[in-house]
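Re: [ENG-882] Designed sequences occasionally contain unexpected residues at chain ends

Forwarding the minimal case from QA. Structure tokens:
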């Protein structure tokens, strides 16, 4: 339950898993959770990137370990969750941040492309949540899925059909699991970011027309800064959000308010 305002955002004594931590938002999330006191397990396919991230977290005084993980492979996701419990003692926070977006596709998008994106973004989020449920049952915990403003709106940017469908699936999966797992004190929420710099958005945001589109369409008039998802993440991970579940928290500079 939420308590002392000075303590409610602390993650001291908690173990967090961040899947999709080798770049972009996930790499940032792992560092923020560690700074809030959590021991962190970082997973993705590019192990060299994960090792560098662990070095950065440890150099800042945090505790982190890396484990290779492919979210399209259930056994790999289960192994990652086992690593958290086996090596760090528990799994209290799961952040499912792995995601892909096709940069180029023919109209209509091929079934192959559509399936691939759904497999990573929607089924991958589900596998992360399910692996967390198995370890949190009886103890409770916080599952944070990463959706997108593209899961709430349509026809509003360069997104593919698969990307918007997969992120819409994450929004309603959040509701379903939030309700379904509430009796176990497992809270399930999602963050829906607007536009932030990352490998995924590099092509769009590095072109003058792409950047101009985002800046002019965003009420706050700019792309999100690197640290502008930190508050939403720590809020949802910690006891500060103990009465929040099934919720998608939009952090988009006002994009979806239009
Ligand atoms: N940046 C934005 O503006 C924005 C806005 C809304 C939502 N999002 C969402 O935020 C999340 C992070 O994206 P990002 O912007 O930070 O892009 P990014 O830098 O491209 O990061 C994507 C991450 O997903 C991982 N990943 C991809 N396929 C995977 C797989 N099969 N198994 C495990 N990990 C996999 C990548 O790691 P490996 O390649 O090493 O496996 C990488 O760590 C995504 O879900 C994205 O849809 C981003």
């Amino acid at each position: 339950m939420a308590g002392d305002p000075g303590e409610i955002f602390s993650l001291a004594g908690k173990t967090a898993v961040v899947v999709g931590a080798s770049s972009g938002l996930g790499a940032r999330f792992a560092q923020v959770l560690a700074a809030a006191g959590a021991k962190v397990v970082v997973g993705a396919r590019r192990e060299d990137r994960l090792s560098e991230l662990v070095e950065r977290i440890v150099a800042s005084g945090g505790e982190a370990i890396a484990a290779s993980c492919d979210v399209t492979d259930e056994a790999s996701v289960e192994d990652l969750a086992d690593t958290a419990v086996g090596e760090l003692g528990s799994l209290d926070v799961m952040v499912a941040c792995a995601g892909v977006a096709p940069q180029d596709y023919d109209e209509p998008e091929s079934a192959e492309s559509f399936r691939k994106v759904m497999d990573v973004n929607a089924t991958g989020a589900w596998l992360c949540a399910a692996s967390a449920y198995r370890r949190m049952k009886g103890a409770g915990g916080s599952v944070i899925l990463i959706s997108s403003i593209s899961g709430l709106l349509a026809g509003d940017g360069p997104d593919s059909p698969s990307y918007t469908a997969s992120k819409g699936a994450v929004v309603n999966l959040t509701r379903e699991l939030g309700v379904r797992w509430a009796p176990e004190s497992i809270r399930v929420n999602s963050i829906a970011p607007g536009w932030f710099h990352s490998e995924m958005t590099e092509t769009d945001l590095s072109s003058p027309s792409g950047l101009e589109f985002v800046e002019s369409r965003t009420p706050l008039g700019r792309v999100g800064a690197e640290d502008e998802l930190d508050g939403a993440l720590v809020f949802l991970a910690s006891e500060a959000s103990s009465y929040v579940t099934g919720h998608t928290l939009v952090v988009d500079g006002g994009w979806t308010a239009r």
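QA comment: On inspection the terminal residues look reasonable. Residues 20-26, 44-46, 69-72, 97-100, 120, 146, 148, 193, 195-196, 198-201 surround NAP (CB under 6 Å). Proposing we downgrade this to a documentation issue.
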